[in-house]
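Discussion board: Methods & Data

I've been asked by a reviewer to show the raw model output for two of the constructs in my manuscript, not just the figures. I'm not sure how much to include, so I'm pasting the format here to get opinions. Each protein appears as its amino acid sequence followed by a line of discrete structure tokens. Is this the kind of thing reviewers expect to see in a supplement, or should I convert it first? Here is construct A:
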Amino acid sequence: MNSERYVTNISKKGLSIYDPIEIGDPNLWIPTPDLEKLLNDGLRGKSLTGLPLRTRSKVVKETVCRILGYPVPKSFKKTRPRFLGQLFDTYIQKSDNLQIWNEEISLMRRYAVIDVSSGDVIRKVKVVSGDVLAKLDTTGTLTQKYQARLIAGKAATELVVPSDCDHLMSVLKVRGHLTCFKNSPTDLPTTETLLPITQIFTRLRTLVGQRFTDMGYDQERNRGAQLHRLVCQRLGYGSYQDDGRFPDVRNQLLEVKLQTSPTIDLGLVRPDSQEPLDVQKIQGVQMRHCDVRYAVFHADTNGTEVTLTHFYLTTGEAFFCRFPQFQGKVINKKLQIPLPGDFFER
């Protein structure tokens, strides 16, 4: 769908920014990639020169309303988030420290981070979900996260459950599965492209034994990127792409975990959650977090080379049945999140 069609539909419906919209509504809910595109197209190049901080924030929010087809309210209510219907907040950044005041990061909320130049001109907008922000903490003390333990089995590869969750099974094609894909791994999933969990297992189990260069113990993201590239290739994608959003291979509703230690960090995403996923409905069915498939790879490293030794595939629904959850959450609040130098380029 063309991103502008959401704007037209919202305007025709006469909605305010506070009117609730069901996540996944094909006509009114703006998926994160489209929201990011609309905000970039509408805000990039806008000057905020000379505006006091509060006025600057108000002007940006008013502009966002117009961009998305909403009427500008006489005053903005102190709702959390401010754009309640689309579940997002705006944050104007001239520094690399993102400040979130007096509240925890929310899994379901989107965060529109607006990059402003030293001359007070908007350069770019990045829209991310709460779980992405949680990964950006470099101190290990940011907000709250779920963790589980990887306990190796006797087999090198393991399909934890024989079939997908009922929600996902109801939209899978019964016959014929593509062996290669022309679209991107980060595209929204469709009934034409989604593979059943058994097919994903068959294609990815051959990665066990694969080796790739270790970029160093402080380069976890580079390790993960190399694994993601291999996963995309084995699934049948002609290109690799990772936009940092959950799940990693959105077109297959697949999250990829690389483990060189037994502790699996899950961030804000509880795998068995029945909360709706930020994707459009598929044949009228809204996918949930528990419908996501998790590809967990265990690896050994000698400091120069990573070797994939085990592969496990499960649904989010059955995740904690195979990988025991640590009791409770690791919880610690922090208000300032350091943004990496390439945050707006990902």
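Construct B, same format:
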Amino acid sequence: MLKRYHGDEPTARFDLLPAIDLRAGRVVRLRQGDFDQETAYGGDPVAVAEAFAEAGATWLHIVDLDGAREGRPVQADVVRAIVDHVGERVRCEVAGGLRSDAAVDEALGTGAARAVVGTAAVRDASFAARAAARHGSDRIVAAIDVRDGLALGEGWRAGAPGVDAMQALAGLADVGIRLFDLTAIDRDGLLSGPDLDLLRRGVGLGRGEIIASGGISRIEDLIEVRAIGCSGAIVGRALYEGRFTIQDAEAAIRSAENGRLAPQG
């Protein structure tokens, strides 16, 4: 049965999005977006998704890394298998290689809640505008991958061209995008803490919801990015390496929403 996403539910809460990055059918993490610095965390992506679902995840951030590199979906069958398996319990946002109208349509046709457009959206805001007009602004996310203040297409590639990150974000907001995955490339996969200055600038524009990505290593990082106004955070290596659990993170987030930080340990 095709899963449907109902976009009329409240979005005020802070969401934790465990990341499942796919390369050659495996779950991996890259350091700073570098394909030559890969760590594998599992050979069965569906089992990894199931483990996150069992742990209480309400969202998954699924990235087709091969697709991102090729400029077209490559791991589409794996993505569909994940959504088919957990999509009734966990909302999935899908990224990687979505650079055509057809690719976005196909990604959402799996039953995924949201499609993430990056390189093509940064280069051509009208592409993102078409996607939002067809599917609704609650189902399209723009990925803003930032290095040295620039939003980059093909952010893993040295010398990739870029534009001012805040200008890119504002330009996409002007055409109807309301959700942004904002990634500090230099911190991604390093467990070095989020780039709070970058995130503050993104939130400070007041042009949409900012989902923090890159560097999160502890629950306190989640509390900090929530406190500056982010609506969620993508977390990968910290979960895979046991820095904290989904259950502990969710408890701390809920406590912060109620005005107190849950004790840890």
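Answer (T.O., handling editor elsewhere):
This is acceptable in a supplement if you add a one-line summary per construct. For B, something like: The domain at 15-257 is CATH 3.20.20.70 (TIM Barrel).
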